Fold each of these.
Amino acid sequence: MKAGVDFGTSLAKAAWMNNGEFSFSSTADAELKDIARQLSHDGVRKVHLAGIGYSDDLAGYFNDFEIKTAEGDPIENEVRLQAEGTRRLLEDNGYKGDSFLVVSIGTGTSYALVTRDGATKFPIGNSLGGGFINGLAQILGASDYNELATRSTEGMLLDLCVKDMIPDKKGTFEGELVVANFGKGTSDSKRSSVYASVISTVAVATIRDVLLLGMIPNFQPPNDIVYIGSTVARTPVLKNLLQAYSAAIGKSPHFPEHGEFALAVGAYHMQE
């Protein structure tokens, strides 16, 4: 038996078959040594490694496994394997399309155009992602990421929108456009609202990027936008905002189940 393991900038994630179905585990919930122990317990003997976060000091956790890595450029391999994993997860959810834009929101945010012919990564990503959210959460006093994700659902966005300046625009797409993230913030703003607005900043930047990609020749995003990554999976406010904003700009958003494990699934299916 084999497993795919994705070593990201912040988290490691594993996907493996157990009784005919995929099992998943992430260092967001368990230590890497415990994940390795679980793989061994379930009969995994070979591990396919992917992700730019892998280093030699992590190899000791997998001494008992046969290790396989992809040859070539690690970034190109990650894009290709992540696209393969995303397509398989989408198909498991009943998706039958040929082309889609993968928006991967992990520590940072990246964009890749996926077609039946392969995957093309946009060369410039976005530094606003889970690392930005988590860093500000720590500065603001959150005990961990889960506290931010939970409390943010109770907050009101502190963003200044067009409708705040022009009341007649309320209820329109233009009225919902953000003029300034945190534009209504004060020293008395509730912590939950601050957390929600940190997340909103990432959502606004992501949708802006999607719109800008549509202005670049040879990199036209298709109608289907697929959002993956641990930040999306673990942050309900972000998912809700991306859902609403994507629909507002005429795109069809998709959030495949276990999307944060797309690269691990792609690594699992790496050619022997």
Amino acid sequence: MRNFTIDQLSSFNGTNNKPSYVGYKGKVYDVSGVFQNGEHGGLKAGTDITSVFANGPHSEEIFAKFPAVGVLNEANNTVKKLLAANSQRADLILRLAIGIIFLAHGSQKLLGWFGGYGWSGTMGFLTGTLHIPSVLAGLVILIEFFGGLAIIFGFLTRLAALGIAGTMVGAAATVHLAKGFFLENGGVEYVFILLAVSVYLMIKGSGAFSVDALISRK
């Protein structure tokens, strides 16, 4: 089977006597029989329709009717999966909530804002009191600040959420698990919620209103 890049696929858009090809879940299908002038039901030939196909009336079994003519280049497909954003607009609420929380805490740790101790004070606490290696301590500070900022704008959301989820697992293991579950005792309750939202964003992506969605559409 032929390997297609996204750019190569785009030339098979059903115009100028070209066949109509679409990408779906890593494969390229010839849909010329149903795509008129390179379009069918709002879907455009020459594109990877994986992220938008679910919003249509058909199930994926329909692709058994079309010949597979190739596969999408793995590097391009991986990038597209990373940036793929679902169409849910309500996800913006979760993104803003967790993004603001981590940007605020990251600002305390990195810049000393909002009554925080800044870089040197936070590094002293993390390395001296919690005995976290300095490299990891620095990463925690940077992930909270830049990860929160990235999630607010919906840029590389899955990577940012992965970093934040990792810091929450670390926070639970080093501080909160020993204090039980409930928040009033310093337990893991609050960390658990933040971890759950981070995992949700890792799975679902950034949603419709995001930089990731804008890049993915282009």
Amino acid sequence: MLSLLGAPLAARAGAQVEEPLADSIRSALSASIAQSAPPRVRFEADQVEARMAYLRWLGVMSERLKKRKTETQIRIEFLETVWYEAKRAGLEPSLVLGLIQVESGFRKYAISVAGARGYMQVMPFWTRVIGDGDASRLFHMQTNLRFGCVILRHYLDVERGNLSLALGRYNGSRGRPEYPNAVFGARRQWLLPGEM
């Protein structure tokens, strides 16, 4: 992502605040991060329609992402992982793609002024709170996407399903509409035709 002067733009992450977590929540989040299921999507033989819908989504999203990720294999692996981690966390893949677009501009090694890292701009304190403490792993695609999706799901649960408040909390701007509105606007670009 470049500014008008051609210089790279900073990642957009806000000043997300480390909040105390109950031991039960910390344990549940840690278990969710630790599960090492493969990001490959698997369908049973009787799930033909679901498989076809997924393949259609993958094809459309791959075409839309082509300008930002030109290498086909990297682009497909990224989209497969986004879909897998979003669905695993009970989130819409289009929402996760919109958040990534706003947070990092699809840059794997983005670092914000606040220190958030990677595609989903995860704050390093999360690796200490629910991970193994190695913040450098936030530059690993699946790790970053898993942390980001699990954290967003946690905030969505904390905010009792209010997506605007959950997005604000994710960004450290809870209660202000600019960030959620930016994510909602970006999300529209990642919806399939007819999903509005």
Amino acid sequence: MVLTGRWTMPRHILSADLQGPSKTAGARTAQLTTALHERGQTTFTLADVRDITCLSAASARSLIRHAVNRGIVSRLESGLFVLVPPEFGRAHEFSGNPYVVARELVAGADYYISHASAMELHRMVTQPQFVIFTSTMKRFRNRTIHGTEFRFVLIRPKDMFGLTPHWITKQDAVKVSDLERTVIDGLRLPEYCGGITEVAKGLWIRRADIKTSRLIEYALRLRVGAVIRRLGYLLELYRLAPAEELDRLRSSLTATYAVLDPLVPAEGPHVSSWRLRINIAPEELEAVRRT
């Protein structure tokens, strides 16, 4: 069974070390776990192990191998590990907080938690999410770790804006798209959010906290025609923006049309005012108001 959860000081570690093959190995493990706790760091790399213990690369690998075998540490992937909280006993597939793991997987590259994952952090969804989406300017391979899927979305350097820190635990913060940027990303790639209806639902749920002027500013800054069309249509449909704000979006439209939801067949009426094909049933969009 895959385990996830919050981490507290591993008081069980010293006693667990006494069962190890040598007193030295136990002392080193205690030194490592205590230092990680003092740093507020639950996810760590082999480089962290060497920095804390001053061991050689081979000795550091041996230390971690013993810690994994004892269930004190769980291996996430090659070179990346997480401390196992005492309440989980000797778990070998504890994955820690998936948002923190996503941060560590990009290994220092610029990133932010995005799309459906950001919607979950911002309480814009009503269903639990099982994929962690991370936007980054560097290409990373998608992977599954202990049952959690991590997907990476490649973006341009100039599109790295609209971010905010989000504290996952008392020790760990991650970068996440702010409310407005989360909506914009969803309008750009609805397939990473469950479709336009889910994005519209998130917009409606947090409508009291979302700044429509910032939404429009972000859409115009991104300069993606489909995003501008979809945003304008939804803001007008749900009466969330005054006419003068909507005119800012209309002034940037070209003659081409886009579909409201790219996940649905391109069928349905055209709305000339937004150069948009409405390929979702009106009652589905209206049902969002009852969320």
